[in-house]
Automatic annotation (TrEMBL):
Name of the protein this chain belongs to: Uracil phosphoribosyltransferase
Its EC number(s): 2.4.2.9
Keywords for the protein's UniProt record, in alphabetical order: Glycosyltransferase, Transferase
The gene coding this protein: upp
Top-level taxon: Bacteria
Protein species of origin: Pseudotamlana agarivorans
Length: 219
């Protein structure tokens, strides 16, 4: 897997990341969602440099300009709920993409530390020979990303795969590396060291879905 960790370079991305993490600023849910969306836009821009381009003649009012334009058939798939603002950020730039949505949530057992990933809702176009972009802002244990990808296999074989996330944890990245081939790209805002006993990224930012959309009852 090729990992593109954008926080390795100084950029305005770090401002958006630090606002997402900040215990007071993150209480403003609208700002929280917009910061995830802005990071989605930055990740889309960086990823766009690695797509396949072809020349196309564009008629202007005064002549013809030959532009190099991306020719990939993109399918943008996001994991609900927290993936919604990240999806919007990616779609702001990849506005011609087809779209897929999948729900994956942690179903907790008797102990808060143990959970399994439940995939229920899935709406997806054909993925055959397309460029799949699979997005989820939090890559903690990596189980949601892997469970989602397994569910998507029924929709065809993409010719290119890009995973997109805002904050990842080293153990989760090690886990997904085992499941995705070496040609798969991971575009990520930043990578933290640890997971706590409940599978949350430390220092991370807390629960992205709840911060974006409010608390939910545990099932
Ligand atoms: O890498 P993992 O250990 O699988 O954890 C990451 C998952 O946790 C979050 O979703 P959550 O289950 O909180 O659902 P929500 O978006 O509905 O809040 C996040 O958006 C990922 O989907
Ligand atoms: O740190 C984490 C882990 C999973 N889901 C989140 O929203 N945050
Ligand atoms: Mg959540």
């Amino acid at each position: 897997m090729k990992i593109h960790n954008l926080s390795k370079e100084n950029s305005v991305l770090n401002c958006f990341l630090s606002e997402l993490r900040h215990v007071d600023i993150q209480k403003d849910a609208m700002r929280f969602r917009r910061n995830i969306e802005r990071i989605g836009e930055i990740l889309a821009y960086e990823m766009s440099k690695r797509l396949t381009y072809q020349s196309e003649d564009i008629q202007t009012p005064l002549g013809i300009h030959t532009s190099k334009l991306p020719k990939n058939d993109l399918v943008l798939c996001s994991i609900l709920r927290a993936g919604i603002p990240l999806h919007q950020g990616l779609l702001n730039y990849f506005d011609q993409a087809e779209n897929a949505f999948i729900s994956a949530y942690r179903q907790h057992k008797e102990h808060p530390e143990s959970f399994e990933i439940v995939v229920e809702y899935l709406a997806c176009p054909s993925l055959e020979n397309k460029t799949l972009i699979l997005a989820d802002p939090m890559l903690a244990t990596g189980q949601s990303m892997v469970a989602t990808f397994e569910a998507l296999k029924a929709f065809g074989t993409p010719k290119e795969i890009h995973l997109v996330s805002v904050i990842g944890a080293k153990p989760g990245i090690a886990f997904i590396k085992k499941h995705f081939g070496k040609h798969v790209n991971l575009w990520i805002g930043t990578i933290d060291e640890h997971l706590n006993e409940k599978g949350y990224i430390v220092p991370g930012l807390g629960d992205a879905g709840d911060l974006a959309f409010g608390n939910k009852l545990q099932q």
